[in-house]
Design goal:
Layout: E1 12-15, E2 18-22, E3 28-30, E4 35-38, E5 45-46, E6 57-62, E7 65-70, E8 77-79, E9 82-84, E10 86-89, E11 93-97, E12 100-106, E13 110-113, E14 119-120, E15 123-124, H1 128-140, E16 147-150, H2 157-166, E17 175-179, H3 188-193, H4 210-213, E18 218-222, H5 232-241, E19 243-244, E20 253-254, E21 258-263, H6 267-273, H7 278-284, E22 287-290, H8 301-311, H9 323-331, H10 337-350, H11 366-369, H12 375-385, H13 390-412, H14 417-424, H15 428-437
Parallel strand pairs: 4-5, 16-21, 16-22, 17-18, 18-21
Antiparallel strand pairs: 1-13, 2-3, 2-12, 4-6, 6-7, 7-10, 8-9, 8-11, 11-12, 14-15, 19-20
Helix pairs in contact: 5-7, 8-10, 13-14, 14-15
Length: 448
């Protein structure tokens, strides 16, 4: 993914690429698509060296030179006798991986066209990297390629998956979500592939596999990196053969689904650490989409705020968001990414009257700023507490935390109180009490 800066035309990006060669092999150009070097046969450049990791290093062109990134290799990536993790190459260089020497030659900068696509489905953005992502999504969606969506928590990975589904030929069929991060290890196989009645203690009824529930549509494997290692070979076989067998069953059943996956973890590093299978990684990562953190695309904040207000039913309300407010939002560190912004917009809009300014920045939440907050932001928080009794200030902070936490929880769980209780580790009655206290809506008809 490019940390992009625009050069010249609004829709062109200047990148500095190069080419690499291993031993006496052919030269391979390094462009804006990553070139992965390693022992695994699925790497773009395969190296026969026992001291090179299965997925060792990655080269990709950026505006600042070719970015060389070690992918958690066992023996490291070395440049000029120095072990490196993440560097930019702008001159001819020799790189050592294990006992293998990789020659790098820098090439002259070139301007790459950036598509002028301002949105994709519900996704919006005006920054060059986001427009490049939208262009990629528009090309990938009509296919049946498996897509791996990566990014920090709150960057909108599930929204990307839904957008891909809705832009595909399977849009009228089911979109089924499986949260791999919430599956108990002992029930992972049964959760993914279904089970027969009596297959194990507690299996009082037959359960259909989500692969079968998504027949003709799309299955979204969220937080795939959390899937237990022992279940990964069975998932690989299901993806490769397009058929599943339930726990306790005797026959395989064919399934027709498009597979999308997401993770906040670096799966390549997990492969080298032995906690994620390399063959499964390359199976799910036919196409990779890297969602940028909001702090890396601050210029998208105004268009995001406008879109969020439109989703809340009043796009014209954006006229009451001041430039000062937008500037404060762009100074924030955004640990919660777009999800944090959506929560702040929703609260500001709900508490606003028709004729006053919508001060989104006032609802970011003191606790969300954390140690990474700017000194100015920390000063504003401190100022708001000065001269106030400790217990009163403490109550305000806790109330804001509760409101932000349960608003985000309700959003993530689509208002399903049972799911909110499970994620929060609380009784449903307690969750309902917090929702009522802070005026957050829920869907009680989904609680069963």
């Amino acid at each position: 993914m490019l940390d992009a800066t625009v050069a010249g035309s609004k829709n062109r990006l200047e990148v500095r690429g190069g080419r690499i060669r291993v031993a006496k092999g052919d030269w391979q150009d390094v462009g804006t698509e990553p070139v992965i070097v390693g022992r695994n046969a699925a790497c773009q450049i395969v190296v026969d060296d026992g001291k090179v990791s299965a997925v060792h290093a990655e080269f990709v062109a950026t505006p600042f030179g070719v970015r060389l990134r070690d992918l958690g290799s066992r023996n490291g990536t070395w440049v000029g006798g120095v072990r490196v993790g993440d560097v930019f190459l702008s001159a001819n260089t020799k790189v050592r991986l294990g006992e293998t020497e990789v020659l790098f030659e820098a090439m002259r900068p070139e301007k790459v066209a950036i598509p002028a696509i301002p949105q994709f489905g519900p996704l919006v953005g005006q920054s060059p990297p986001m427009r490049a992502i939208f262009d990629r999504l528009s090309k990938v969606s009509p296919t049946d390629l498996t897509v791996l969506i990566q990014g920090e928590t709150g960057t909108g990975k599930e929204l990307v998956a839904q957008a891909i589904h809705l832009a595909s030929n399977r849009a009228k069929k089911p979109f089924v979500v499986v949260d791999c991060g919430s599956i108990p290890p002992t029930l992972a196989e049964a959760t993914l592939f279904g089970h027969e009645r009596g297959a194990f203690t507690g299996a009082v009824d037959k359960r259909l596999s989500p692969f079968e529930e998504a027949a003709g549509g799309t299955i979204f494997l969220d937080e795939l990196g959390e899937l237990p290692l022992e279940v990964q070979p069975k998932l690989l076989r299901a993806l490769a053969e397009r058929r599943v067998k339930s726990v306790g069953g005797s026959n395989y059943r064919e399934v027709d689904v498009r597979v999308l996956a997401a993770t906040r973890r670096d799966l390549v590093r997990a492969v080298n650490a032995g906690t994620f299978r390399s063959d499964l990684y390359f199976r799910v990562a036919q196409v990779k989409i890297e969602m940028m953190a909001l702090r890396q695309r601050l210029e998208d904040i105004p268009v995001l705020v406008r879109r969020m207000l439109k989703d809340l039913g009043d796009e014209s309300a954006y006229e009451r968001v001041s430039t000062t407010t937008l500037e404060r939002l762009m100074r924030h560190d955004w640990p919660g990414n777009v999800r944090e912004l959506r929560n702040a917009v929703a609260v500001a809009f709900a508490l606003n009257t028709d004729d006053e300014e919508i001060d989104v920045a006032a609802h970011l939440g003191a606790l969300s700023e954390g140690p990474a907050a700017t000194s100015a932001g920390a000063g504003n928080i401190a100022m708001s507490f000065r001269g106030r009794p400790f217990q009163e200030a403490k109550r305000d902070v806790l109330a804001r935390f509760e409101r932000d936490y349960f608003a985000a929880l309700a959003d993530d769980s689509k208002g399903n109180v049972s799911e909110m209780a499970r994620r929060a580790g609380m009784e449903r009655a307690h969750v309902r009490a917090y929702l009522r206290r802070h005026g957050i809506g829920s869907k009680s008809d989904q609680e069963g």
